[in-house]
């Protein structure tokens, strides 16, 4: 299952209602076979601009980010369900970036630049491009002299 980040803005509400809303959001993920990896609370903040959702104008919201693993087909169901929830002001689901494998190249980087493999490749590329862009005049004018100044 791919990893997603679910960003939620929940309306201003007491802590007990906030707890029930987060429980409802979590159960929606679990019911679709998803797994919650992490929940981050970014707190209660004023919004950068007033936002209307479900017929109400919101100027402050609780911000949460869920890191979840769920099936690709369940993402559309979650979006649809959260769009109908009156406690959720905004919701966005993003595919999380996977960490790519990086190998340690410290020994190679400690070499002088002339001996590094990547620098040698760049030098070779530069040599081929210089040869390609050299201007060579061809005397195809039919005159036995160059009519312009040299």
Automatic annotation (TrEMBL):
GO molecular function: small ribosomal subunit rRNA binding; structural constituent of ribosome
GO biological process, one term: translation
CDD domains: bS6_mito
Family per record: Belongs to the bacterial ribosomal protein bS6 family.
InterPro entries: Ribosomal_bS6 (IPR000529), Ribosomal_bS6_sf (IPR035980), Transl_elong_EF1B/ribsomal_bS6 (IPR014717)
A GO CC term assigned to this protein in UniProt: mitochondrial small ribosomal subunit
Species in which this protein is naturally found: Papilio xuthus (Asian swallowtail butterfly)
PANTHER family (UniProt xref): MITOCHONDRIAL 28S RIBOSOMAL PROTEIN S6 (PTHR21011), SMALL RIBOSOMAL SUBUNIT PROTEIN BS6M (PTHR21011:SF1)
Keyword Coiled coil: no
Domain of life of the native organism: Eukaryota
This protein's name: Small ribosomal subunit protein bS6m
Keyword set, alphabetical order: Ribonucleoprotein, Ribosomal protein
Gene3D superfamilies named in the record: 3.30.70.60
């Amino acid at each position: 299952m791919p990893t997603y980040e679910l960003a939620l803005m929940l309306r201003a509400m007491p802590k007990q209602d906030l707890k029930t809303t987060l429980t409802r959001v979590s159960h929606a993920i679990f019911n679709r076979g998803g797994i919650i990896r992490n929940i981050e609370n970014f707190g209660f903040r004023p919004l950068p601009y007033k936002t209307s959702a479900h017929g109400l104008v919101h100027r402050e919201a609780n911000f949460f980010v869920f890191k979840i693993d769920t099936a690709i087909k369940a993402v559309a169901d979650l979006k649809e369900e959260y769009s109908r929830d009156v406690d959720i002001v905004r919701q966005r689901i993003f595919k999380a970036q996977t960490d790519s494998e990086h190998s340690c190249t410290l020994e190679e980087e400690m070499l002088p630049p002339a001996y590094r493999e990547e620098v040698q490749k760049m030098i070779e590329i530069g040599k081929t491009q210089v040869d390609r862009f050299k201007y060579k005049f061809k005397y195809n004018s039919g005159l036995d002299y160059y009519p312009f100044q040299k």
